[in-house]
Write a structure and sequence with these properties.
Layout: H1 11-14, E1 23-26, H2 36-45, E2 50-53, E3 73-78, H3 85-92, E4 97-100, H4 103-114, E5 119-122, E6 136-139, E7 142-148, E8 152-163, E9 168-169, H5 178-183, E10 185-196, E11 215-218
Parallel strand pairs: 1-2, 1-8, 2-3, 3-4, 8-10, 10-11
Antiparallel strand pairs: 5-7, 6-7, 8-9
Length: 232
């Protein structure tokens, strides 16, 4: 069992090998299902020049947004950027490069990258600025554009439960981009709410097989709510 045990005891060990100018693929949607402790460790390491691929960049002062405070992110590949004032400021000042990508296309870029597929055709974005300069082709009377897949040196993922072999289960909507991100990193690090022994997870429930995972760490999560909407 020891040879397959992927659990590490510190965030420093979890993110060992992360260097300047690398690409990091991060799971999560808004603040839901984000690997909070792994993001905090990137900030603590002070790693700079990063290309970060994620649905969005958190909010001011939380999630991936904390990496903007010391300008650790050079380029952001994301679908939505509307909840972060510092992000907007750095973008408008030319301090942050942003590649806006349709949400489904971004998910497929991660999935395809993890599956070893270098590119794929999608109708999304054809005839818009998203499709400018990209190869296009007609299939069954409809135009499609060619999108390249994405991989990164690191993928950081948040799981509900993981076993010591790296098999993962996500909880409800916290699944979001995490399964795709987990496949697309040369080194994939999972931060889990609970770590169980091998055999405790039903094989039919596992959403990310441990073959994709290199390291697992037990996390502590604030689970901050991005927007609270209540009624009288």
């Amino acid at each position: 069992m020891a040879g397959f045990d992927k659990v590490v005891s510190s965030y420093q060990e979890a993110m060992a090998g992360l260097e300047d100018n690398m690409t990091v693929i991060a799971g999560g949607f808004g603040l839901c299902g984000i690997p909070e402790g792994l993001i905090a460790e990137i900030k603590n390491k002070g790693t700079k020049g990063l290309t970060v691929v994620s649905n969005n960049c958190g909010i001011d002062g939380f999630g991936l947004g904390i990496l903007l405070e010391d300008k650790q992110i050079k380029k952001m590949v994301s679908s939505y950027v509307g909840e972060n004032a510092l992000f907007e400021k750095q973008l408008l000042n030319g301090e942050l490069e942003v590649e806006l990508t349709p949400q489904g296309t971004l998910a497929e870029k991660m999935r395809a990258g993890g599956a070893g597929i270098p590119a794929f055709y999608t109708a999304t974005g054809y005839g818009t600025p998203v499709g400018e300069g990209k190869e296009s082709r007609e299939f069954n009377g409809r135009q499609y554009i060619l999108e390249e897949s994405i991989t990164g040196e690191f993928a950081i993922v948040k799981a509900w439960k993981a076993d010591r072999y790296g098999n993962c289960i996500y909880r409800h909507t916290a699944q979001n981009f995490n399964p795709m991100a987990a496949t697309a990193g040369k080194i994939t690090v999972v931060e889990a709410e609970e770590i169980v022994e091998p055999g405790e997870l039903s094989p039919t429930d596992i959403q990310t097989p441990g073959i994709y995972v290199d390291r697992v760490i037990l996390g502590q999560f604030e689970k901050r709510i991005e927007k609270i909407t209540t009624s009288d």
